[in-house]
């Protein structure tokens, strides 16, 4: 009889726990998450980039601004190196002692230096290295400012106007102290397109 009562008590406790977790995790949490999403519809929708009423991408995922051969298009700000393919994101897993990585970075440095008409030692690190995911939409302000003269020349715009776009696009550190200042390349190029029209 005691074993039966003990089993019945354990079953009642398990049923109450199941009911509680069903209520909290199956009903309350989804309602809370839905309410939070409705408070931030743009972010919940994937932070779409909209040009002329058409969704052209997401400001959370980097994009390439290259031609069909993979060469940089001179009238756009360029992103970090990366595949920008969400289905195949990830780093190369090449470490600092890798000769393949060193050769790739050196080649990219020469290409960026030639594109921007600057000495190779003025090319910032993020211009020649991909992010860990390969999808980062941000570059450093240094890399953005390095590109200003080329973009201004290619679009026949005053360099000061293009520099002002970069100034406005620089986002500070998260919470004022986390990370480094960044520039979202897609948002900067969208602003550039608006300036040029």
Q: What does it look like?
A:
This protein is mainly alpha-helical. It folds into two domains: 2-39; 46-196, no CATH class. The protein has six helices and five strands, in the order ααββαβααββα. The protein has helices at 2-39, 41-44, 99-116, 141-155, 159-169, 185-196, and strands spanning 48-51, 54-58, 138-139, 170-171, 182-184. Strands 3-5-4 form a three-stranded antiparallel β-sheet. A two-stranded antiparallel ribbon has the order 1-2. α4 packs antiparallel against α5 and α5 packs antiparallel against α6 (185-196).
Averaged pLDDT, please?
Answer: 88
Largest sheet: 3 strands, antiparallel
Number of structurally distinct domains: 2
Helix content: 40-55%
Strand order of the largest sheet: 3-5-4
**CA-CA gap between termini:** 85 Å
* SSE order, one letter for each helix or strand: HHEEHEHHEEH
Strand content: 5-15%
The stretches of 5 or more residues where confidence is low (pLDDT under 50) are none
Structural class: mainly alpha
Cα gyration radius (Å): 25 Å
Subcellular location: Cell membrane
Keywords: ATP-binding, Cell membrane, Ion transport, Membrane, Nucleotide-binding, Potassium, Potassium transport, Transmembrane, Transmembrane helix, Transport
Subunit structure: The system is composed of three essential subunits: KdpA, KdpB and KdpC.
Family: Belongs to the KdpC family.
């Amino acid at each position: 009889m005691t074993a039966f009562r003990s089993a019945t008590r354990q079953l009642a406790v398990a049923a109450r726990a199941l009911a509680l977790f069903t209520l909290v995790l199956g009903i309350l949490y989804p309602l809370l998450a839905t309410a939070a999403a409705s408070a931030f519809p743009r972010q919940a929708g994937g932070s779409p980039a909209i040009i002329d009423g058409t969704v052209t991408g997401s400001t959370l995922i980097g994009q390439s601004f290259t031609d069909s051969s993979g060469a940089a298009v001179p009238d756009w700000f360029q992103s970090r190196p990366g595949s920008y393919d969400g289905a195949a994101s990830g780093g190369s897993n090449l470490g600092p002692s890798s000769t393949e990585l060193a050769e790739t970075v050196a080649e990219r440095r020469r290409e960026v230096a030639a594109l921007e008409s600057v000495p190779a030692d003025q090319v910032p690190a993020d211009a020649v290295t991909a992010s860990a995911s390969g999808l980062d939409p941000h570059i450093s302000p240094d890399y953005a400012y390095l590109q200003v003269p080329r973009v201004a020349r290619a679009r026949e715009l005053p360099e000061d106007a293009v520099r002002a776009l970069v100034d406005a696009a620089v986002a500070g550190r998260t919470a004022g102290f986390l990370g480094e200042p960044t520039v979202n390349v897609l948002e900067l190029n969208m602003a550039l397109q608006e300036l040029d029209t």
